[in-house]
Amino acid sequence: MGDKSSVWGQTCRIIPLAFPKGQEKVCELCQSPARLQCATCRVTFYCHAEHQRTDWVGIHERICKLLVPVRTCMPNNTKEIQLKKMELIKISTLVAQSKLFQGKHQEALPAAHLCSRYTEDVHGPQSVQQVPAFLLLAEANIGLGNLALAAELLSQAEWVLLKTPEHSNSLTQQLNRNFGRLHAATGNLEDARFNFANDIFFATVEFGMNSTVTACSLFLMADVFAKMKKMSITRSMYQEVARIWCDHLTKLLEIYKKNIPNPAMLSESFHDKSKRAEGERMLGAILEFLQKDVSKDLTQIALVTYSLAVLRLLDGDSHKALEFGSAALQASQQILKRDLTDAIQGLLQLLQTNPEPPSD
Amino acid sequence: MKRSQNSFRTRRAPEEPTRLPTKQEVTALTADPVQNMCVEMLQRGLHRSFSELFSLLQAARTRRKAAAFTTAAAPLLEEQRDKLETLKLRLIRAEEAGRAGSWSDSCQQRLLLAQYFSSPEDLWLRLHFYHSCADSEQGAASAPAMEAQAFLAEFYLQTDDVEKAKQRAELSLKREDEGMLGLNSQTLMPRFSRVLTEANMRLAEAADDHDTALKLLQESCRTARKIKDESLEGRANLHMGRLYLSKDEHDSAKQLFDSAKEHFLSAQDAGGLAEFYRTMAKFSESKGNTDEVIEFLEKSAEICESSHQHSELADVSMTLCEVYYRKGRYDRAREVALKCFEVSCKAGLTAMLLKAQTMVGISSAQLLIEKHVSGGMSSSPAALDRLLKREKTKACGELNSEPAE
């Protein structure tokens, strides 16, 4: 008996009593007794259609067939199976991160849970390798307002890291970022500033001052200062975020221009595109701030709208790119120093003469 | 024992509950001091100060790595607490001043940092802060920025980076002409003018063609005249005179040399006068007048000696020695060479010292030869007697000498 659902994958009903005692199937998401089974892999079960759809969108579409050997082979701790599990961990981590970059906290949960489960399976409970999964889950839960659960997850992650002094700066940076987010969400701005300050420090150490990771850390900190009504600091930090993103996008644009004759070279990973989505959200927020700001910094407005134009171009939205590009040109022509005008005019010319990039 | 047991039982709990340290306080104790400093800056929203401090620490580490095999390892910047504290304090003040729109104060903090790093191993930090002060976008016309600009112009001139020195001097003078500078900065203008004059003279010396050199020297003269620096104007005239001399325009050259002398006398510039006489010696040399050459060189040497210009004195003395030697006046050549040797020893001029030694040697040898040759050529009884005695001594010497191995 199968349910037709081409968009969300296909399922079929199962009869719980048909399974031997001790081998009852539980829902992939909520662990309650399962009534549905994925018709493709047949090793994933759900309590009802909504959970199946959530899991499909969240992660299952990408890993459906990969689960078969992992969940059917016995024993399932052979080297080959372990490698397959590590592949699943990698995919689920990337998917969860991508969802979070796009602000899709609910959709990130299935991937984050899967990551946590398989990491524990491969490396054991409370291992340092499980920390990224804790952090992903914490971030998703903060976004959904489940602050108590997020606090618990972060405490676990912190405890593991304290027990493992030789861990990477990247993990410390992410832990601080999530603690910062948690404190900001609870209104504890002082602790939020402390954690975001550590986030920026470790991001700079690990990734450098001109990295988009550091830019995100600065953006989050700027947000806290905005809540404290310290607008000059917010403005200064936003300026730095915009500069980093503009430099990053300029490099991507150069690569794009070089590969126009070879469209095949232009294809990018889902993860890269999602990261850009995060950049777009940040730049959008900065633009909104600048447009409302009393100082009306046209240089910054030009820079941010230009960056948004490049982002839209790279995502294949020429129409929106042209819109942003024109706004950038208008702003840049009103300022004395016209360093950016040439770059903006170059971009507009590119938009007018070249077709849209290929979509994946 | 019983008393202590009782006191233990009856001991009261403290009036106030003990306060647990916050997470921040614990981190402050356990984390690296540099990390604490950076985090404190960031918590206050001073991200630009943090970025600058971080870059400097990274640069210091890179420099230390590069120098590891060549020089004795100096302590890293991050290990020098007092320097870090000063950096932190001034960078924070600079950023806060900038944020408040007070660009002059911001530049002032940077200038103070530049002046703080005065030791030779911190030259790179000094230059960093002078640059960041002088090249500040918003505060470029402020007094501290101009002060930094003056230092950099003079520094580049000293280190022979003449083009850079000229650029900075010209930029500052242009700002002054456009009325962009305040009263406090105008006292620095003579320094820029001097740098520009000097830079133009050096560029003229290195120029490939005469026209470029002439243009540069004319500009030098104009600049020197503007700031009423007689000494500098004298030097510019001297350089121009040399240029005309190289083109065989002797009349124009002589006019400029005379003008230079007037300027040097007016400015009581002993160094300038000494250089003038050296130039005049060259001028006389071009006319083939050796006596005049000697006269001018002697004058130059005298001035160098009285004004304690050891290096110039050694140089002039050597030239004079060579002239005397060429003229066959070996006694005088030897005397001057000895003088040159003495001065070179005092001034630690090793190459010149060795040269002087050689000149003393060959002048002395020439004197001896002269003596013997002049004795042998005479036909007087005394000369004959000397010649006979010499030959006899020579013969005995040959008989008594050990057979060669």
From TrEMBL, chain A:
Question: Which Gene3D superfamilies does this entry report, sorted A to Z?
Answer: 6.10.140.2220, Tetratricopeptide repeat domain
A Pfam family (short name) is zf-MYND
Q: Which PROSITE patterns match?
A: ZF_MYND_1 (PS01360), ZF_MYND_2 (PS50865)
Please provide, alphabetically and separated by semicolons, the GO molecular function terms listed in this UniProt record: zinc ion binding
Sorted keywords for this record are: Metal-binding, Zinc, Zinc-finger
Start and end residues of each MYND-type domain: 27-64
Name of the protein in question: Zinc finger, MYND-type containing 12
Originating organism: Oryzias melastigma
UniProtKB/TrEMBL annotation, chain B:
> Where in this protein does the record put region Disordered?
1-23
Main location group: cytoplasm
Keyword list (alphabetical) reads: Cytoplasm, Repeat, TPR repeat
- Which domain of life does the protein's organism represent? Eukaryota
Gene Ontology cellular-component annotations: cilium; cytoplasm
* Localization in the cell: Cytoplasm
Q: Which InterPro entries match?
A: Bac_ResReg_Asp_Phosphatase, TPR-like_helical_dom_sf
* Record carries keyword Cytoplasm: yes
One GO BP on record is: cilium movement
Asked whether the UniProt record includes S-adenosyl-L-methionine among its keywords, one would answer: no
Q: What does this protein do?
A: Axonemal protein which is implicated in axonemal and/or peri-axonemal structure assembly and regulates flagellum assembly and beating and therefore sperm motility.
Q: What is this protein called?
A: Tetratricopeptide repeat protein 29
